[in-house]
Amino acid sequence: MGETQNPLEVLSLEALRRRQSLKWRAFGDEVLPLWVAEMDTPLAAPVAQALNRAIELGDAGYPSAGPYIEAFRNFAARRWEWEPGAEQIRPVRDVMTGVIEALRLAGELWDTVIVSSPVYPPFFNYPVTAGRRVVEAPLGAEGRLDFEMLEESFNLRTAGGQASYLLANPHNPTGTVHTRQELEQLARLAADYGVRVISDEIHAPLVYAETDFTPYLTVDPRGYAVTSASKGWSLAAFKAGLLIAGEEVASELADLPPEASLGASHIGVLAQTAAFAEGEPWLDALLQGLDANRMLLTELLAEHAPQVSYSVPQGTYFGWLDFSEFGYDDAPNGGAERPIQGPAKHLLQEAKVALTGGHAFGTGGEQHARLNFATSQAILTEAVQRIGAVLVPAAGSGPDRLSSG
């Protein structure tokens, strides 16, 4: 495909149904899957070429991460005018593995990890597997950071020991992109209470033109960031991530266990290096397609499901949908990784559309579901039409609450 062509409009539904990935295999062929964070795109040409070269050469050995680190540094310099030093960066298996390694470097067993819910579900369970306690400091109005809540949480949790704050930047699932002023305020608050901030920036390439992305480490030299090309170029199969230390704590990377850097796969490093080094034309075409889709979602909901509240995201390819006008039961019914509670359960059963249930995102996720609009406009249109056809407002529900803000 040409790199100026919208990659979301290349593959037919028939072609997508031949995929063997989780998104397309978890539910039957009657279901339109708009749940897990996979995009319905072909590979960017530079990525496909890098993978084909590796296959032709039998290049299936251990990873050499130097070019990967340089490709990211150059990408960050072009995209965000930020170029962390190579000594600040280490390869890791993937972003959430990098989060765990950062928590270990920044604190101790049984430390508290604070998260701002509703937030990416692994923020709750991955730290627990690493021996940490997770507490919530929910988002405030309009899905932005609530600094009074954060200060209260930082104060309480640092009184009896260390604490870390796990930031989603941009925020998943709301699509909020934190401003530089907000991140500076967070950094000051963290410094006041001795809290270490770890910023998950995997969605950073997916920020729309009207909004500026601010890398967290540009405002906090004692923080950590984790990232990869996985979300921007839909490369979840090619495991590789980067752990980045703030300038003042780069020496802590010496304590990173050797096996952490060996976790990235060679094929993943090759794919993601190509994405960062040569994949920007494809990314720009993708962003144009995603921009059109986020606006189309606004129009489709207004027409077919006007009582569903939705705020257009500033980043990511997620629509965070509020179904509270419909009175769905959010009682648990299955594992947290399956979108089968509340409105998502109803829509899977009745509309044959798979969304991710809001309950998995913690406090504030009740009566919500996350919709992945990184698909073709035809699939997105049919999905919302199906959703609208099965929604029945609860008795006494209020006026239409659709928001484009």
TrEMBL record:
Keyword tRNA processing: no
Stored CDD domains: AAT_like
Classification via SUPFAM superfamilies: PLP-dependent transferases (SSF53383)
Keyword Transferase in annotation: yes
Cofactor: pyridoxal 5'-phosphate
Coiled-coil annotated spans: none
InterPro entries xref list: Aminotransferase_I/II_large, Class-II_PLP-Dep_Aminotrans, PyrdxlP-dep_Trfase, PyrdxlP-dep_Trfase_major, PyrdxlP-dep_Trfase_small
Keyword annotations: Aminotransferase, Lyase, Pyridoxal phosphate, Transferase
Enzyme Commission number, as recorded: 4.4.1.13
Domain called Aminotransferase class I/classII large: residue spans: 108-387
Short name of any one Pfam family annotated for the protein: Aminotran_1_2
GO molecular function, a single term: pyridoxal phosphate binding
Family: Belongs to the class-II pyridoxal-phosphate-dependent aminotransferase family. MalY/PatB cystathionine beta-lyase subfamily.
Name of the protein in question: cysteine-S-conjugate beta-lyase
